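User: Just a sanity check before I run the rest of the batch. Below are the structure tokens for the first item. I only need the designed sequence back.
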């Protein structure tokens, strides 16, 4: 984690925790900057973990506005540095039950290849283990993020296929389509924010802000395979739908904070904010 990183560690309505690459020169000034927005409650910074916890009224302010406010402060504090913003997704790591389901699937495949006597039982077992694993995964994501991922739809495909006797193939497709993205998502989606304070002729200056995504390479054939398997069973990929950049872009559009003369570019967001 570099000095210019801001990571969303955890987020619930009314509460957001951020981890900073390094503390600003003045923690008090950062907290005061966050407090300038209406609807902000408690703001606490832990210097040991470098985490900033903000409680707020979600009917007045949203988490993205708080995130942008913190990133702008850090950019100005570090002499207009480019701040990397990313999100640590709680549900992106596989659990033991997910590996167990994958192992039972591999065992069933080996049994079929060797024409073993327990093949049918092992295939049913791997299908049931995968089904339980997907449901548990969905429940955990509801607890962490408040919504379930559409990958749960893959369970319906698995149930229908098992009823038709196509257990092993359906189980393999379901497991790969559901958990493949977790194995391949080594690089977290992130964007960069850069702010600059500009003096005006009047009594009040303003801050120019630019945000742009930093996209990981899209040429990985394994990712294309996982996406193809998901499409095969009617599972839409969610990549980019709730990315940090998309959320900032939506927030900016609602406030109309587009710099005059710059236009709206799909890969960048420009904001002009009063100090």
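Assistant: Here's the designed sequence for the first item:
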């Amino acid at each position: 984690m570099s000095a210019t990183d801001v990571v969303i560690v955890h987020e619930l309505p009314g509460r957001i925790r951020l981890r900073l690459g390094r503390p600003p020169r003045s923690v008090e000034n950062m907290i005061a900057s966050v407090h300038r927005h209406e609807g902000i409650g408690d703001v606490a910074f832990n210097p040991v973990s470098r985490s900033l916890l903000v409680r707020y009224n979600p009917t007045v302010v949203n988490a993205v506005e708080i995130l942008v406010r913190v990133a702008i402060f850090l950019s100005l504090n570090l002499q207009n540095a480019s701040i990397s913003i990313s999100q640590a997704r709680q549900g992106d790591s596989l659990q033991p039950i997910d590996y167990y389901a994958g192992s039972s699937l591999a065992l069933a495949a080996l049994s079929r290849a060797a024409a073993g006597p327990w093949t049918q039982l092992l295939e049913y077992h791997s299908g049931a283990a995968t089904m339980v694993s997907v449901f548990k995964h969905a429940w955990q994501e509801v607890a962490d993020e408040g919504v379930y991922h559409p990958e749960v739809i893959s369970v319906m495909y698995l149930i229908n296929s098992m009823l038709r006797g196509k257990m092993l193939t359906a189980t393999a497709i379901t497991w790969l389509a559901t958990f493949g993205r977790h194995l391949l998502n080594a690089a977290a989606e992130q964007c960069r924010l850069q702010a600059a304070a500009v003096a005006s002729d009047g009594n009040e200056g303003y801050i120019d802000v630019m945000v742009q995504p930093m996209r990981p390479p899209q040429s990985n054939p394994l990712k294309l395979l996982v996406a193809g398997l998901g499409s095969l069973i009617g599972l839409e990929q969610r990549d980019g739908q709730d990315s940090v950049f998309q959320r900032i872009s939506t927030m900016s559009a609602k406030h109309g904070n587009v710099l005059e003369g710059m236009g709206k570019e799909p890969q960048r967001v420009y904001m002009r904010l009063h100090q």
